[in-house]
Structures are given as structure tokens and as C-alpha cells.
């Protein structure tokens, strides 16, 4: 009976989306174009170098080297092997869903148990500095100083989630695997790296080709989700469902003494972060702090669009999605609380200090992230098309041979 209800529900949702696309073709097309622009201008060119580099580092054993070195730090803090430090760093530098991608690769390489991989996924999917400083702080709020506050709350909250999730699955882990504590050793780390490289019999050209193909496959999947959720969010607004659901969010915001005018932008941000953050910045309200609290939450929550990408990446492994989803809510709460606590010392006090004595390089620092975004918008599509062409050539040659 449960499966019958599930089938009927999924069928109803799919049919409703199809009718909505027929009813609003122009608006759906515009939303699709918007999602495509985000993907091929920003997402693809910014994530591709990280994905390819990560594949190469795993193939050459460098990740194993890093894992041995950072084992004494990662194991006590987060109860994951030292290789988790690689996924954590890559996730923070390149943004979501890089953390999930790296965790899955490490799980496929059998460098993580299932429980360890689920812990790692829960705190390695973070927003990139480019998005926090460039898109949200400068692009939407026109205030580079805000980026320091948002980044601090986001990354500290992420670390707190990792510390909390270290206790996840401990009963299961004692049966499956006992953690091994080892001391810091560069010599042992190098030996493990050398052994890992020798175990991979692929020539350099094949490793490079696999890195490009695997990275592009993941990025094409990510692009599909971005476009789909861009259209889906727009359709929810057009048919009036967003307005109905936002009533419930108004009640939730009232409980936390936040302006009810942020209910609809907040709901939008739960589905798609970029559009939600933009709408929050444009919503008129007396409390600027309230806006920042809501933005911090949706950045930490990742949005259903990113969560769908993570779910798709995890689907080919035995890593469960539920711990990651729980961690997103926990991260949202931590980030919101930290925003309240750090708003004065990291934003108000800093703003007052810089008004008294503005350094000469201040304007240049504010424009740096904007310049990077403009650079991606100008040359990102060229890089995307060129890389896709190279991938087609590599795959064609492999099919011929």
C-alpha cells in the first residue's frame, strides 16, 4: 500500500510539472536559460580544475600521503581518517558538491568505511569563498565587509557539525572497524603514497583522460540539477504554491522574532540558494541582522538543488543521504546562532573602524571578488565549450580503440 501511494504521488507531481511547463512555456524557458548561464559561466569553469586535480592526486597517491600526515588531527576531532582533510579542504575551496564528490571517490578507493564516509559528507559540503564574497556579499548586498561575517559563521559552523557528527554511528563502527591511532610520520606517509601509485597500473595518459571524463560527467549532472531546480522554483511561484507554503514559514519566522516579509525569499532559498539570497537582499525590512541570519541559514542548508546533486552523487555508493540531510539542518542552526553572536564584533565594529581609517587598498579588496566573477562570466563559457569538446574527442578515441 505504501508503494502504491508513493507511485501515485510521484506520478501526480510529474504530471503537474508537465502541465505547468505547457501552461508557462516562456517563463520556464527564461528560468532554464538562467540556470544554464549559472552553470556554464560560473559552476563548470570554477569546479572543473578542482575535480580534475583531485582525481589526479588520488591516482598518484598524494591523497594517501595527506591522509597519513593528518590522521592525528582528523581522527580525534572528527573521527574520520586523515584523508578526510583533503575532502574538507577541497570542499571549502571549490564549494558544493565537491565534498560529496571527494568523499565518494575516497569510499570507492576503500580509504573510508561507510560510517566514516557518511560523517565526512556531513561537514565537507560548504559554500565556496567566491560565492560568499563575490555573489552574496558584493553582488547582492554590495558590501564586501559582510563576506567576512558570512564566511566565518559558515565555516566555523561547518567545523562544529563535523565535531558533532563524530559521535554518529559509533556503535556500528565498533563492530565493523576499530580506529587505529598512529603518530605523525612523513616517512610512512611517503611509503603509503608510493605504494598507492604502484598499485595503480594505468599509464599517465589514461589517468589524465579518466580524470577529465569523470569530472565532466559529474559537472554535466550538476548542470542538469541546476537547470531543473531553476525551472521548478519558478513554476512553484507561478502556480501560487510558493505563496501558500510561505504562510507556514511566516509562523516559523514569528516564533524566532524575524520579519515575516522574509518568508517567501526564505522558502525560495531553501530550493535554490542563489535566487533566495538575491531576493532576501532585495526585501525591504527594518532589521538588517534578520536578513543576514536567514542568508546564513540557507547557505548552510545548501538548498534542495544542491542536496539533490549530493543525493545523485551518493546514489552509486552505500553512503546514506539521511546523515547529510540532518547535518544540513544542524549547520543551518549553528550558522544562524553564530551570525547573532559575531554580528557586532565582525561586522559593526569592523565597519565603524574602517569608517574612521579607510586603508588605501580597501577599495581594491572589495572589487577583487567582483573582478573574479566578471572574469568567469567572460571566459567561463569558452572554457566550458572547449573542455566538453576535448571530452568528446577522448571518448570517441576510446570507443574506436
Question: Your description of this structure?
Answer:
Helix content is 82%, strand content 0%. With 401 residues, the chain is an all-alpha fold. The chain starts with a helix and ends with a helix. The longest helix is centred in the C-terminal third of the chain and has 39 residues, at 362-400. Helix 5 runs antiparallel to helix 6 (114-124). The protein has one domain (27-400). It is globular, with a radius of gyration of 22 Å. The chain has helices spanning 2-23, 25-59, 62-78, 84-94, 98-108, 114-124, 129-140, 145-165, 170-176, 186-199, 204-238, 241-255, 263-271, 273-282, 288-301, 303-314, 322-356, 362-400. Keywords: Membrane, Transmembrane, Transmembrane helix. It comes from Virgibacillus byunsanensis. It holds the Pfam family Gate. This is Sporulation integral membrane protein YlbJ.
In short:
With 401 residues, the protein is mainly α. The protein is 82% helix and 0% strand.
Low-confidence stretches: none
Count of helical stretches:
18
What is the averaged pLDDT score? 85
Q: Helix and strand succession? A: HHHHHHHHHHHHHHHHHH
Shape: globular
* Assembly state: single chain
Percentage of residues in strands: under 5%
The number of E-state strands comes to 0
Distance N to C terminus: 50 Å
Characterize the largest beta sheet: strand count, sense, and whether it forms a barrel: none
How many domains is the backbone divided into?
Answer: 1
Would you tell me the structural class of the helices and strands? mainly alpha
Please estimate the helix content: over 70%
Computed Rg: 22 Å
Amino acid at each position: 500500500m505504501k508503494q502504491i501511494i508513493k507511485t501515485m504521488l510521484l506520478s501526480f507531481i510529474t504530471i503537474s510539472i508537465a502541465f505547468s511547463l505547457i501552461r508557462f512555456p516562456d517563463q520556464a524557458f527564461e528560468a532554464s536559460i538562467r540556470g544554464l548561464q549559472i552553470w556554464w559561466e560560473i559552476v563548470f569553469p570554477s569546479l572543473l580544475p578542482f575535480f580534475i586535480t583531485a582525481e589526479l592526486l588520488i591516482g598518484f597517491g598524494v591523497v594517501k600521503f595527506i591522509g597519513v600526515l593528518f590522521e592525528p588531527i582528523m581522527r580525534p576531532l572528527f573521527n574520520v581518517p586523515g584523508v578526510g582533510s583533503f575532502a574538507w579542504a577541497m570542499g571549502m575551496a571549490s564549494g558544493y558538491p565537491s565534498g560529496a564528490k571527494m568523499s565518494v571517490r575516497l569510499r570507492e578507493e576503500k580509504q573510508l568505511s561507510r560510517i566514516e564516509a557518511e560523517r565526512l559528507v556531513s561537514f565537507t559540503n560548504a559554500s565556496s569563498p567566491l560565492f560568499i564574497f563575490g555573489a552574496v556579499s558584493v553582488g547582492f548586498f554590495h558590501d564586501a565587509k559582510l563576506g567576512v561575517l558570512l564566511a566565518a559563521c559558515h565555516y566555523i559552523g561547518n567545523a562544529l557539525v563535523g565535531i558533532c557528527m563524530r559521535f554518529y554511528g559509533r556503535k556500528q563502527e565498533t563492530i565493523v572497524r576499530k580506529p587505529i591511532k598512529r603518530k605523525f610520520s612523513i616517512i610512512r606517509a611517503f611509503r603509503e603514497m608510493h605504494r598507492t601509485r604502484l598499485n595503480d597500473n594505468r599509464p599517465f595518459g589514461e589517468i589524465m583522460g579518466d580524470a577529465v571524463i569523470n569530472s565532466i560527467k559529474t559537472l554535466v549532472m550538476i548542470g542538469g540539477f541546476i537547470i531543473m531546480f531553476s525551472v521548478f522554483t519558478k513554476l512553484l511561484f507561478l502556480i501560487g504554491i510558493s505563496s501558500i507554503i510561505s504562510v507556514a514559514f511566516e509562523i516559523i519566522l514569528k516564533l524566532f522574532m524575524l520579519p515575516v516579509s522574509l518568508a517567501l525569499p526564505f522558502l525560495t532559498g531553501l530550493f535554490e540558494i542563489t535566487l533566495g539570497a538575491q531576493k532576501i537582499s532585495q526585501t525591504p525590512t527594518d532589521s538588517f541582522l534578520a536578513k543576514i541570519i536567514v542568508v546564513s541559514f540557507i547557505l548552510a542548508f545548501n538548498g534542495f538543488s544542491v542536496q539533490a546533486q549530493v543525493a545523485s552523487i551518493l546514489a552509486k555508493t552505500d553512503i546514506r543521504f539521511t546523515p547529510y540531510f540532518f547535518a544540513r539542518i544542524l549547520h543551518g542552526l549553528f550558522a544562524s546562532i553564530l551570525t547573532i553572536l559575531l554580528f557586532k564584533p565582525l561586522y559593526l565594529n569592523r565597519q565603524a573602524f574602517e569608517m574612521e581609517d579607510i586603508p588605501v587598498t580597501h577599495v581594491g579588496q572589495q572589487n577583487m571578488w567582483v573582478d573574479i566573477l566578471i572574469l568567469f562570466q567572460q571566459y567561463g563559457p569558452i572554457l566550458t565549450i572547449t573542455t566538453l569538446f576535448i571530452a568528446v574527442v577522448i571518448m570517441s578515441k576510446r570507443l574506436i580503440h
